[in-house]
Structure formats: structure tokens, C-alpha cells
Amino acid sequence: MNRDSDAPKPEFRLPHSLWRPYCQMKTASPPIEVESTNGVTLRLKDGRELIDGISSWWTACHGYNHPKIVEAIVSQAQTMPHVMLGGIVHDQAIRLADRLAPCLEGDGNRVFLSDSGSVAVEVAMKMAMQHWANRSPNGKTSRNKFVSFQNAYHGDTTGAMSVCDPDDSMHANFKGFLLDQFPQPIPETDEQEASFDLFVEQRKDQLAAVIIEPLIQMAAGMRFHSASALQRIERVCRKHDVLLIADEVATGFGRTGTMFGYQQAEIAPDIMCVGKGLTGCSVGLAATIATAKVYVPFHSERWEAALMHGPTFMGNPIACAAANASLDLFETEPRLEQVAAIERTLRDRLEPLAECDDVNSVHCLGAVGAVRMKDEVNVSKAVSGFVEQGVWIRPIRDTIYLAPAFTISHAQLGKLCDSVVQSVSRVGAV
Ligand SMILES: *Cc1c(COP(=O)(O)O)cnc(C)c1O
């Protein structure tokens, strides 16, 4: 149907129609084709096997194809693959919400289900804003802005993008299109806390909430901050009565060594977003958990005070069944002990790399070990070197990191560490 002049020129032709994420497809090396997964390995179409060091964007906490999760999915698919959540509820969603509600302090918490981490963040932002609107006599609020942090990543939808680092190359193209928010440095010292405090105080009439990824900003390339920085942020939020949102989409479910990162700082977020590991690397699902304090102004005679959100596939029964099976595994298997053992190995093996000339710093926490180089890493070159060694490791910018499944064996983790150690010298030479 194309006129000749519209026909794609040969250089636009690619082997398939998939539009790949964050990828310049003209110059990118061809993606590796995976045929199946099992445990912590990816089996490629050409028969090779790779030990996975990054567990599919940090989601595979129990490894791939965990039989309990697969069983839960199959059995739920046979009973009821999907039903809308408008006017209807079902056991899997109720059970999951009842299990996620206690993940924040206090009684009477509420859990809102959605499909992806980005949407969980959008919902958290809408909750925070509408919380203040519902509390005002005329139902309106000027408190519709957010304080976020440098290097933050909260997702790819527009609200979530607006609280990402504004200078980040991921979303820089959309700068003019996005809402202006208030990105700040993470306060690590008394002095920084004082200026953060002043900043929030001067804008508190405009602020709905502060949003932070507790302990590790993973998507930015594993940027770490201290538990005391989280305490400083919480202190300022409480002082000026601003809500605190913990985005635990990446850090939740054991990744940092505790079930949630915020627990290491002993703070009490008002809202928490979870996603990624929630279904144990099987189906997309996310949740926004709100404390009773956040929820109360929504509980009203007025219809307009209800939370105005409702994704079509929210609370999908298959996804909820997978999440319930994943939470069962956290209860019945020693996941956090496994994470602690992984942390010890990562420290033993990776921390000595801090001495290398090309290495800026090394940080290990929970099942995350990150070697930050002084320069950006040539990612495609590094990845092909890793694939040749039989491992799947994909650096982010200047950081080569491991974030394996918690079920990884000592030998497999050893092989991943060997590959990182070898590549640090090689990458440095590039
Ligand atoms: C990945 C991520 C998101 C977005 O989740 P999606 O499921 O990709 O939409 C949000 N916040 C953090 C901290 C993330 O790491």
C-alpha cells in the first residue's frame, strides 16, 4: 500500500518489528535471543547458557520458573484468568492486599493494585495530592508539587518522569512537556539537612509529598545513600507536615537485606510503592500501599473524595496468585539469610576492586554489588565480553553491578564475581 517513495529504505530494515526499550536500534548490537529460563540461568536460542547476574531488572528474587509460582499461575489461569475490579473483588486480590497492608506501620492501611511500578508511582502521587484536596473545605489544594532527588528514577509515565532526575538522559527529551517538580540533593550531613529543611519550609504550601527510593537509587546505576539520610528526610517531612513516599519498586522484597529498604532506617513512610519483585519475576503487577492517615480523608460521604484511579487490569487474578505464591516463599524459605550470604560474598570479592586505578568506588548492600568506574563503561562491548564468559551482566553507565536471584548457588555467584573482576581490568583498558 505504500507509495514507492514511502517504502522503507534498506537501512531501516531490521530482522523483526519489535521496538526495543532505551535502544538506538540503528547502532545497537543485535539482542541476544533467549529461549527459556530456569533457576538463575538464561538458555539462548543457540544452545548457550548464561548465569544471570541481574535477574531481569532485579525481579527474579526466587530465580526463574519457581515451581510454586508456576503452579499458582497455571491453577489460577484455569479457574479465572481475569475479572474487573470495579464492583467485583476476588480472593487472590483480597489476600494479597491483606498481606501487603502490614508492610507499612500501623493498622487500617490500604493497598491499591496496578500493573506496573510507574503506575504505582502515579497512583501514589495522585493519592498524596488528593489527600490534601480532600482535607480542605472546598476540596481544592495548592499542594500538588513533589520534592524528589538527584539521580532519582520513578518510572516512564509522565507523572513518574516528572520526579525523575531532570538532567537524566533518559527523560531529557521530554523536559518541556513535564511538570516542574523540586529535585534536591539527598541530605547526608547536618548542613545539607538544614538547607533541605529550609527548602521544604519555604515551599510547604505547594508540596504534596517527598518521594525517595530508600537506600539505593538502582536505575541511576546503583547510587547508594545512608539510612541516616532517610531519617533526615523523614524528620523534615514530619516537621513541615509533608507526606513521605517510599518508592520500593526496586528495593522491596529483600533486595537490600531487609524486606524493605526503609526498615533499615526505622522510618515510617506514609505511602509505599512496590512492583518489580512482587510476583517473583512472572507477571506484571504493582501496588501502592497507604497508611490509614493518608486514607482517612478519602473515607467520606462525598463521591468526589474517592480515589480517582482504576486500571483495567488492576488486581489481575493470575498476577495476584503469583504474588501470593512469592510471598509464601518469603515466609517458608530463608530468603533474607540467602541475601545476607550473597552480601558477604559480594563484599569479599568486589570490595578489593576499589584499589584499581579505573575504579571510583565499590558498594555492596544486600543482594546488590556495584563497581563504579571513573568513566562511562562501553556497555555493548562489556556485555559481549560477559556473554562470551557465560554470564549475563549489563552495566548501567559507569557502573558494573550484580543483583542476582537470592537462590543463586555459591559457585554460580563465584562465577559472576570472577567475570566482574576480570572485566574491570578489561573495561578499564578501553
Ligand atoms: C523500575 C522502577 C519503576 C518503574 O516500574 P515499571 O514497572 O518499569 O513501570 C519505578 N520506580 C523504581 C524505583 C524503579 O526501579
Automatic annotation (TrEMBL):
| Keyword Transferase part of the UniProt annotation | yes
Tell whether Transit peptide is among the UniProt keywords: no
| Function, as annotated | Catalyzes the transfer of the alpha-amino group from S-adenosyl-L-methionine (SAM) to 7-keto-8-aminopelargonic acid (KAPA) to form 7,8-diaminopelargonic acid (DAPA). It is the only aminotransferase known to utilize SAM as an amino donor.
GO cellular component terms, alphabetically, are:
cytoplasm
Annotated residues for binding of pyridoxal 5'-phosphate? 117-118, 247, 311-312
The text of the family note is: Belongs to the class-III pyridoxal-phosphate-dependent aminotransferase family. BioA subfamily.
Which of UniProt's keywords are assigned here? Aminotransferase, Biotin biosynthesis, Cytoplasm, Pyridoxal phosphate, S-adenosyl-L-methionine, Transferase
Question: Domain of life of the organism in this record?
Answer: Bacteria
User: GO molecular function: any one?
Assistant: adenosylmethionine-8-amino-7-oxononanoate transaminase activity
Which annotated residues bind substrate?
57, 153, 276, 310, 394
Q: Which CDD domains match?
A: OAT_like
Recorded catalytic activity of this chain's protein = (8S)-8-amino-7-oxononanoate + S-adenosyl-L-methionine = S-adenosyl-4-methylsulfanyl-2-oxobutanoate + (7R,8S)-7,8-diammoniononanoate
Where in this protein does the record say N6-(pyridoxal phosphate)lysine is found?
Answer: 276
Which Enzyme Commission numbers does its entry carry? 2.6.1.62
Q: Quote the PANTHER family the UniProt record gives.
A: ADENOSYLMETHIONINE-8-AMINO-7-OXONONANOATE AMINOTRANSFERASE
Q: Where is this site: Participates in the substrate recognition with KAPA and in a stacking interaction with the adenine ring of SAM?
A: 22
Where are the annotated coiled coils located? none
Q: Which GO terms describe its biological process?
A: biotin biosynthetic process
Encoding gene per record: bioA
Which co-factor is required?
A: pyridoxal 5'-phosphate
Q: Which NCBIfam families match?
A: bioA (TIGR00508), PRK05964.1 (NF004624)
How does it associate, per the subunit comment? Homodimer.
Its main subcellular localisation, reduced to a broad class, is: cytoplasm
Query: Would you tell me the protein name for this molecule?
Result: Adenosylmethionine-8-amino-7-oxononanoate aminotransferase
Name the pathway. Answer: Cofactor biosynthesis; biotin biosynthesis; 7,8-diaminononanoate from 8-amino-7-oxononanoate (SAM route): step 1/1
Mention any Pfam family matching this sequence: Aminotran_3
